[in-house]
Specification:
mainly alpha; Growth Hormone, Chain: A
């Protein structure tokens, strides 16, 4: 018997232990996408990767993640979820071992893409947690689990830098592989089984993605809102190490500590979930987008004043805004089609990821064209566009 057949109604909330397990799993899986970002200068010469191709280390991991979002996450609507999550964890662990021991650039880059692909299993965990929770507290559950995911994003860079400084870059991926195995053992004991309703074939599930996107305007909106917010996030965090090194003479450890301080924004996730549960989705979205835009704009001013403390403050408020908007957006989309949560999440995260990746590309161009101020003005302009799009929802014609 499956968990869904034993209990026709979801429990009011996940147990604290299961919530922690899901949050930790999301964090360690998504961290795999970001470990290599501060390590390119170490990895590229070690594997004889040319200066112009070092970016492939991160790019291929992210492209693999995008493939996983489109090909693996929709399986959550067909395959028993616990089994799917455990398989992705173990395959990600195997690919991380390959990264740690790769003797050549070709093998390393192939393994990097595979790591990204199976790390998309994190996006099976979030809708599963939502499915195991009653509608009245779904936002709180998503917020708690997403706090682990954002912590993984924010902590991966400083942890990767610190571990590489102590034991070399290969140790980073070896330790991550061990974490994957430990989390798999944890979830094997903690997660209940959850079988989706039998129905469409895998091919039909993939084919339905475009129809779901076309038919769900709230999915379209929430994905674009968060995609633009994530673009601002990426502009800030791609440019921040540059300004810290060039203007404030930070070393690798100093940049790592700055990133650790910025991770405090993850604490906003549970608050966002409670806002959603109380029916304040639009208010919370407005506050989040305003915080994102203002933080980007004021960050440019803070650097001109030479204040690292203000930069830390605005890093926290920007991250908090991005996290609040993410949690509210996922709460909305998980309430639309219960039988298609995996596909909804796949569509949502793919759009978010693609728009966010655009922010990373824009960051480099803007920073080299006009420095930190130009990068932050670009980020603030994207935030303002996000606010304008949200205003069309709030101020648009009301349905009768």
């Amino acid at each position: 018997m499956t968990a869904s057949s034993i209990a026709p109604a979801a429990p009011a909330t996940l147990s604290p232990a299961l919530t922690v397990a899901c949050a930790a799993a999301c964090g360690v899986m998504v961290a795999n996408l970001y470990y290599a970002q501060p390590l390119i200068a170490l990895i590229a010469p070690s594997l004889h990767i040319g200066d112009g191709f070092g970016g492939l280390i991160v790019t291929l991991t992210q492209l693999g993640y995008a493939c996983g979002l489109l090909l693996i996450v929709p399986l959550a609507d067909r395959v028993e979820n616990k089994r799917l999550i455990l398989i992705t964890l173990l395959l990600a662990a195997a690919a991380l071992v390959a990264l740690a021991v790769a003797p050549s650039a070709a093998l390393f880059l192939i393994a990097a893409a595979v790591v990204g692909c199976f790390s998309a299993g994190a996006q099976v965990i979030v809708p599963l947690a939502a499915a195991l929770t009653h509608e009245s507290t779904r936002g709180r559950t998503i917020g708690n689990v997403m706090s682990g995911l954002l912590a993984g994003i924010m902590l991966s860079r400083p942890l990767g830098s610190l571990i590489a400084d102590l034991a070399g870059w290969r140790a980073v991926f070896g330790l991550s592989a061990g974490l994957m195995v430990l989390v798999a053992v944890w979830l094997a004991k903690a997660l209940p089984e959850h079988r989706p309703t039998p129905g469409e074939s895998y091919a039909r599930i993939l084919g339905s993605l475009i129809h779901i996107l076309r038919d769900e305007p709230q999915l379209q909106r929430r994905a674009v809102y968060q995609g633009l917010a994530f673009a601002v996030f990426n502009i800030f965090w791609t440019s921040a190490p540059l300004i810290l090194v060039q203007q404030f003479a930070f070393g690798q450890k100093g940049v790592a500590l700055f990133a650790l301080a910025g991770a405090g924004g993850a604490l906003a996730a549970p608050l966002a979930g409670r806002l959603g549960d109380r029916g304040h989705v639009k208010l919370g979205t407005a506050v989040a987008l305003l915080a994102i835009t203002a933080s980007a704009l004021l960050s440019g001013w803070a650097a001109a004043l030479g204040s690292v403390l203000l930069l830390v403050v605005f890093a926290v408020t920007l991250d908090a805004g991005v996290q609040i908007n993410q949690v509210l957006g996922q709460r909305v989309i998980y309430s639309i089609r219960g039988e298609a949560r995996g596909r909804m999440n796949a569509i949502y995260m793919t759009i978010v990821f693609l728009l966010g990746a655009g922010g990373s590309a824009v960051a480099t161009l803007a920073y080299h064209a006009g420095g930190w101020r130009a990068a932050m003005l670009t980020a603030a302009a994207i935030g303002a566009l996000d606010l304008a799009l949200f205003a069309t929802e709030v101020l648009g014609p009301r349905k009768r």
